[in-house]
Amino acid sequence: MTIGIAVIGSGIFVQEAHLPGIKANGDLFSLKAIYSRSLSSAQKLSKEVESSTPDLYAEDAGSDKSYAKLLERSDIEAVVIALPILAQPDFIKKALSAGKHVLSEKPIAKDLATAHELLDWYHKNIDTKKTIWAVAENFRYLGRFQYGAEQVKELGDVLGFRLRMHASVGPGAKYYETEWRKKPEYQ
Fold it and tell me: What CATH number corresponds to the domain at position 38?
């Protein structure tokens, strides 16, 4: 049995990472729906799905194709949310409140205070044993981080740690040139 999934957003990372990941794992996931702020971008993304025809939802697609209607579907168990920064918290809350498992892109909010509020809300209002929220952070799967985790286990109880890492995304790189990276308030 596959997990019914919906993709929320249709930007670069959905196109180049999330959708290919879902497609490559067709034995685990069944893409049921795509939601985007515009129907045209949802349609464009849906053309990259060969194995099925996901239902399309968008802000400009009418009230029966809204995000709320998508979340009412019982055949959708999980959502991947990759939206502009300011939109993320509201979409995450709505999906979790509807009982959907959530994988959301980073950053989850515009600042630390808003992120902490969202995390506090999740732990106070959602049964975290039944409804899982994960942030899409790919570093946790890199060999050096997994090795570090193994070494930490051998230390015993760890009271705390600090990791400082710097990475560069420079001018000319497609991710650098995205509006949301230059202006977090971009919608």
Answer: 3.40.50.720
